[in-house]
């Protein structure tokens, strides 16, 4: 759909009482099920039981919904690195805090992180999100490299590859984790630390 | 598109000389780029520069191409477990051989493994592939549990969760690995073993 089509809301921005957060949650669910590009505004209004003008009351465009969801996921992940940097002088401690925190954000914001992981850069909103993901990766890679120079993290694995592998494992959780299922969310973060930092082999 | 439409090749099954393997490779590339469901036979013939009847010369249907590609990936992965079981009496050795072998198969068969990882069960071919993936996961989980009972793999992580996490890391490689890029394919398997089994933390 064209931006222009969506960007021209009529004065009648109907149906107050439908919560903006709820509209966002339903839209992100539909995006994740059908793919963002394949989802039309008609698909969204059908899923929401809203008219187009009622949808425009909350958001100016489909792309504005995407942007909000991606920012929500990215803000959460960046906050984890900010917090780790503020709290832990040792880089290896920052790394542990980041793994734990990223798993926490992934589970707390599962739909928006899932959407973020599927972004391929087909629009300016998406390329901006990809750039923020790259910056995030680079910050974590720098912390991992610093932990290697501290001597607390082995240095026979390239820091950028190690970061990709750790986040590959963390992100893969969106493929199978279901809220309320048998896997405890707090335990999952500890399990990922046990596997990636401590190693599965008995010491 | 309907199966029936594709399943009724005309007698004129033209253009010999176009290699079946090449047709398969191009089709899998198109499936990975646009999604299997979104790809029409017209998309395939356009990408191949073939007529429909020439395509039918090689394959009876779009779904037959998908099936062949998924079987290729699954056969490779299952062979890794078969080989590990034949060669290594210790479960922890089998686990190492499986991680190394699975990374090798993923890189050697990158397009068909990528396709396999995106299958969501929208047809019988896909549900069969998902069942084989589940059986594979269960075999690896049983080996990991046996390695825990040997005392060589830590038992404070659930075997099924550990298997999912390790394969989450292995499978995430399809998102960024590019043949001929800076990351050495043999080294990558060793890196994944260093991270998951030995652990990144210096011992």
Automatic annotation (TrEMBL), chains A, B:
Keyword Methyltransferase set for record: no
InterPro entries per record: Homeodomain-like_sf, HTH-type_TetR-like_transc_reg, HTH_TetR, KstR2_TetR_C, Tet_transcr_reg_TetR-rel_C_sf
A Pfam family the protein falls into: TetR_C_24
DNA-binding region ranges: 40-59
Listed name of the protein: AcrR family transcriptional regulator
Entry keywords, A to Z: DNA-binding, Transcription, Transcription regulation
Domain (HTH tetR-type): residue spans on this chain: 17-77
GO molecular function per UniProt: DNA-binding transcription factor activity; transcription cis-regulatory region binding
């Amino acid at each position: 759909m064209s931006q222009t089509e969506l960007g021209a809301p009529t004065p009648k921005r109907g149906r107050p009482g439908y919560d903006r957060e709820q509209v966002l949650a339903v839209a992100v669910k539909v995006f994740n099920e059908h793919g963002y590009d394949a989802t039309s505004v008609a698909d969204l209004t059908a899923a929401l039981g809203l008219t187009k003008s009622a949808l425009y009351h909350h958001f100016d465009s489909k792309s504005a919904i995407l942007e909000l969801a991606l920012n929500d996921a990215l803000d959460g992940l960046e906050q984890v690195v900010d917090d780790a940097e503020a709290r832990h002088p040792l880089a290896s401690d920052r790394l542990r805090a980041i793994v734990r925190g990223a798993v926490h954000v992934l589970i707390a914001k599962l739909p928006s992180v899932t959407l973020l992981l599927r972004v391929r850069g087909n629009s300016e909103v998406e390329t901006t999100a990809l750039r923020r993901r790259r910056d995030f990766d680079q910050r974590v890679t720098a912390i991992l490299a610093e932990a290697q120079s501290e001597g607390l993290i082995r240095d026979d694995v390239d820091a950028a590859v190690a970061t990709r592998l750790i986040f590959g494992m963390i992100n893969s959780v969106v493929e199978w984790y279901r809220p309320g299922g048998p896997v405890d969310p707090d335990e999952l973060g500890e399990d990922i630390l046990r596997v990636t930092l401590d190693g599965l082999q008995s010491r």
